[in-house]
Amino acid sequence: MNICKSFIGGEWVSVTATESAPVFNPALGEIIAEVPLADAALVDAAAQAAQAAFPGWRETPAVDRANILFRYKALLEAEFEAIALIISTEHGKTLGEARGDLRRGIQMVEYACGAPTLLMGESLENIARGIDCDVIRQPLGVCAGIVPFNFPAMVPLWMFPLALACGNTFILKPSEKVPLTATRLAELLDAAGLPKGVFNVVNGGRAVVDALLVHPLVRAISFVGSTPVARHIFDTGTRHGKRVQAAGGAKNFILVMPDATVTESVRGLVEAAFGCAGERCMAGSTAIAIGKAKDSVIPELVAAAKSIRVGAAFRDASAGMGPVITAQHRDRVETLIGVGEAEGARVAADGRSVRVADAPNGFYVGPTVLDGLAPDASLLREEIFGPVLGVVHMDDLDSAIEMANRSAYGNGAAIFTNSGRAAREFKHRINAGMVGINVAVPAPMAFFPFSGWNESFFGDLHLQGREGVAFYTQQKVTTSRWFAPGEGDVWAK
Ligand code: NAD
Questions:
Q1: pTM of the prediction?
Q2: N or C: which end of the chain has fewer CB within 10 A?
Q3: Is residue 203 in contact with ligand 1, taking CB distance under 6 Å?
């Protein structure tokens, strides 16, 4: 049995713990590893190691820090297929999706390699006669990252490459459901030549998180996960004087106008709803078919959903969709499909009956379409996080925007249309931070902020892009004045 270790001060250490969590291959329903759940003492050891490494790393020139990240990028590329297989095996997503997960993460490493430029300050001479002012960015110290299960590579890589590039040291708390990818990411970072203690991994669950939230040496916390936990992280972390960015859950709406291109709308809806088995914070989990779109798009959508083959995607390249993460999660998704049905929706494609012959114990739910959900259905408020697409029928753009804007979340939203006017109206009025126009999953690339709103994000500065740089640095403003010999100087005379 593979027993996960933690990485403290440059050494892989065995964790002695009273509790541990199983890591599954969800496609087979088999346990493939075990994570001993660390306690506050190991968090303290990681924080001490990160603090001890901070002065040396802070003094390391930005170009030298970037050079380690260039080597890291090369190692990630060399191991690309092997890491994708680890992701697919412990998460369940297809190998193609796993490659996308890692590719997005590597793009963050590439972005962080630009540290010397990203960290440049600003200056203005003569703010008053003979007085100059400049602002520089300096690192914070020890930063921590707490991550979810659904993007085992991308989400950790949203955080630590940029934090390190900015001169901080880091503690990563991987998801206990997918710790194997994080382990490989850490091994390769070590191989890239990072000094000991600059990057640490503490494997565990809630106890580790709670210890990080109150540890006096931890200056900043990046979190990605569900909304209740994001709110807890933000409240507790900020109460303990930490800078916090906490990305939460989502419920994303995709509007289809009657003038939309049918094939592209269907392709987009299928990708948004069923990609990664719906386990994405940018999943398009509700379609709003406006006017005649109902007749043109929905039948094709249902046919496309039914044609997706579910299977053990880590070893079966022909599978279009893998399992969900755990048996409990599969049961919850199936229950919620039943709730939609009880609320009056037609189960036009039913994933509850799916069976995978060569993997009978895997955690599978097939693509599901709940057609004709009422605008006040409870499922429209709840993040399902599975391959379930709810479809609402509405008469016009106005009522569709109003309905979408009643959501408590505000991560992504998209519209399919050929009308510039409708697209402009949607972009202007929709209450969400990431908008797609004929793009179903508008997840921004590394150099733009991952800009969730409302209950999808707690904090001010988002992950990725310049906001990420601002989050991982503090600004120092210097006002300076130099005197000419003898000028205004009594004691020099
Ligand atoms: P989760 O909130 O259950 O867990 C996230 C992390 O928090 C894990 O490391 C876990 O160990 C820890 N954790 C869980 N419960 C905790 C508690 N009570 N106290 C302290 N720590 C706790 O999320 P998940 O199920 O791993 O991931 C799915 C969620 O993440 C979805 O809601 C999804 O929308 C969200 N997500 C959001 C984004 C985004 O950018 N907004 C991106 C990816 C995933």
A1: 0.97
A2: C
A3: no
Is residue 383 within 6 Å of ligand 1 at its C-beta?
yes
CA angle 166, 167, 173 (to 5 degrees): 90
Residues of the chain with pLDDT under 70: 488-493
Q: Would you report the helix, strand and coil content of the chain in percent, each value rounded to 5?
A: 40, 25, 35
Q: 284: domain CATH number?
A: 3.40.309.10
CB 210 within 8 A of CB 233: no
Pocket test for ligand 1, best of 43, 149, 177 (most atoms within 8 A of CB): 149
Task: Indicate whether 433 and 457 sit together in one domain.
Answer: no
Protein residue with least CA distance to atom 21, ligand 1: 206
CA angle 215, 218, 220 (to 5 degrees): 130
Q: Compute the distance between CA of residue 389 and CA of residue 409 in angstroms, rounded to an integer.
A: 17
Write the pLDDT tens digit of every residue in 108-142. 999 999 999 999 999 999 999 999 999 999 999 99
Q: Is 248 in the pocket of ligand 1 (CB under 6 A)?
A: yes
Split into its structural domains, the chain has a count of 2
Q: What is the pLDDT of residues 329-388, one digit of tens each?
A: 999 999 999 999 999 999 999 999 899 999 999 999 999 999 999 999 999 999 999 999
How far, in Å, is the centroid of ligand 1 from the Cα of 95?
23
Q: What is the pLDDT of residue 487?
A: 79
Question: Would you name the residues annotated as active-site residues?
Answer: 281
